[in-house]
Specification:
Nucleotidyl transferase; alpha/beta; nucleotidyltransferase activity; transferase; MurU; 9-stranded mixed β-sheet; GlmU-like; about 25% helix; Spore Coat Polysaccharide Biosynthesis Protein SpsA, Chain A; single chain
Length: about 230
């Protein structure tokens, strides 16, 4: 099974922490965030992991290396300065991800969602893990119906967790370059090509220094679970 960790972003909202340290190397419970992602992907059955890098990417490569310490084989998709955003970053990495289904995990999320639950086969173009809307994103991203279809219309709206399974065909009409993932997902939802599931467990988008410190406190006190 192949997977990708999105790790190329500048982390503007995390400044000044990310002025000298890439966000995936910020630590929680004694390990960098990207280390937790690698550990969990390996436990879920991922054998090859692609990491995209841009801002201070050499630091990520120095820490992660070939991934052997986490039981996976790591390849790097090195992006130009400024990075290629989420959609463009995955598009650039497709030659390393192969022709089949692959998993994607944002490098800055913390969750106890069991990654081994992600599909290994898929009739849709993508399958998204959705969570309850956090305070900083109250309107959500997508609606999820009782049959597991993801749409853009009415109904209960949820937030994309930054965790999902994807087929390369989602990018077949995309040229290389910088672009976000969200418009591709909305188009797929309108075509009926998007499935999903609701995860009601722990999830945090570590987007600001305040959220990082809150997560560290919650993990230290046992209020937030340490992902296995």
């Amino acid at each position: 099974m192949r997977a990708m960790i999105l790790a190329a972003g500048r982390g503007e909202r995390m400044r000044p922490l990310t002025d000298t340290t890439p966000k995936p190397l910020l630590e929680v419970a004694g390990q960098p965030l990207i280390g937790w992602q690698l550990q969990r992907l390996a436990a879920a059955g991922a054998e090859t992991v692609v990491i995209n890098t841009a801002w201070l990417g050499e630091q990520i490569e120095a820490v992660v290396g070939d991934g052997r310490a986490w039981g996976v084989c790591v390849h790097y998709s090195r992006e130009p300065e400024g990075a290629l955003d989420t959609g463009g970053g995955i598009r650039e990495a497709l030659p390393l991800l192969g022709d089949g289904l692959f998993w994607v995990v944002n490098g800055d999320v913390w969750s106890d969602y069991p990654l081994g639950q992600l599909p290994r086969t898929l009739s849709a173009a993508a399958h998204l893990v959705l969570v309850d809307n956090p305070a900083h994103h109250p309107d959500g991203d997508f609606a999820l119906d009782d049959e597991g279809r993801v749409g853009t219309g009415g109904g209960r709206r949820l937030t994309f967790a930054g965790i999902g399974a994807f087929h390369p065909r989602l990018w077949w009409d995309c040229r290389r370059g910088r672009f976000p993932l969200a418009p591709l997902l909305r188009d797929a939802a309108r075509r009926g090509e998007l499935s999903g599931e609701h995860w009601a467990g722990a999830w945090s988008d570590i987007g600001t220094p305040e959220r990082l410190e809150q997560l560290r406190r919650e993990v230290a006190t046992g209020a937030a679970p340490v992902p296995e």
